[in-house]
Design brief:
Blueprint lengths: L6 H23 L2 H8 L3 H7 L3 H25 L7 H12 L6 H8 L5 H29 L7 H20 L5 H17 L2
Helix pairs in contact: 1-2, 1-4, 1-6, 4-6, 4-7, 5-9, 7-8, 8-9
C-alpha cells in the first residue's frame, strides 16, 4: 500500500517559516538555501513542495491573507453590545496593525509586479481584502439604516489604503503606534459612515 501524500500538510507546516523569511528579507534577498535553513530541511524538500522560489513567495501572499482573515473571523466571533463587527475590526487593527510584519511580503511583492504570477496573487489578495471589508461596511451601515455618500466598495478600498499608509508610517517611523491607531480608528470610522 502506497504511503499517503502529505505534501499539502507539509506545505502548511513550512509556510509560516517561509513567510517570515520573506517578510524579514524581501523577495530578492531571500534564497532557497536560507528558506531551507529556516525550515530545518534540505532545499530539495522545498522543491518537492513548490516548483520554485516564486511559487513559494506566491503561496506566502495567499497565506498572509488567509492568516489575517482567520484572525478577523475569530475576533468577530466575540460580541460587544452597541459596536458593529466593522467597528470591532477597526478597533482590532488600530491596536494590532502590522504586528506580524507580514505586510512586508506585500511591499516586496509590489516591486515584483512585472511578474505575472506574483501580480495575479497580489491582485487576488487585495480584491479579497476589499470584498471582506466591503461586506463588513455594508453590514455596519445596514444595522444602522444609514445612507452614505461614499459607497461601501469605495469605502472598503479607502480602508485598505489606510492600512497601507499605516504600514508605511510604521516601516519608515513616520507615525508612532498611537498615531497609527488614531489614523485607523478615526479615519476608518468616517469611512464606515460614508462621509
Amino acid at each position: 500500500m502506497p504511503r499517503p501524500n502529505r505534501s499539502a500538510e507539509r506545505r502548511r507546516e513550512l509556510l509560516p517559516k517561509i513567510a517570515q523569511a520573506f517578510a524579514d528579507l524581501g523577495y530578492r534577498r531571500t534564497t532557497t538555501s536560507e528558506l531551507a535553513r529556516r525550515c530545518g530541511v534540505q532545499e530539495n524538500i522545498l522543491y518537492r513542495l513548490w516548483p520554485d522560489k516564486k511559487a513559494m513567495f506566491s503561496a506566502c501572499i495567499d497565506y498572509m491573507y488567509d492568516l489575517a482573515r482567520a484572525v478577523w473571523l475569530q475576533m468577530l466571533q466575540e460580541t460587544s453590545p452597541g459596536i458593529s463587527a466593522a467597528e470591532r475590526l477597526l478597533q482590532y487593527e488600530a491596536r494590532h496593525l502590522g504586528e506580524l510584519g507580514m505586510y512586508r511580503i506585500v511591499f516586496a511583492g509590489l516591486s515584483e509586479t512585472d511578474d505575472p504570477e506574483i501580480r495575479r496573487h497580489l491582485r487576488l489578495m487585495y480584491r479579497r481584502f476589499q470584498r471582506f471589508i466591503s461586506s463588513q461596511v455594508l453590514s455596519h451601515r445596514g444595522a444602522r439604516r444609514k445612507s452614505a455618500r461614499l459607497g461601501a466598495d469605495t469605502a472598503a478600498w479607502a480602508i485598505v489604503g489606510l492600512g497601507t499608509v499605516a504600514y508605511v508610517g510604521r516601516e519608515l517611523d513616520l507615525l508612532s503606534a498611537g498615531e497609527r491607531a488614531r489614523l485607523i480608528r478615526d479615519a476608518g470610522r468616517l469611512l464606515l459612515e460614508g462621509r
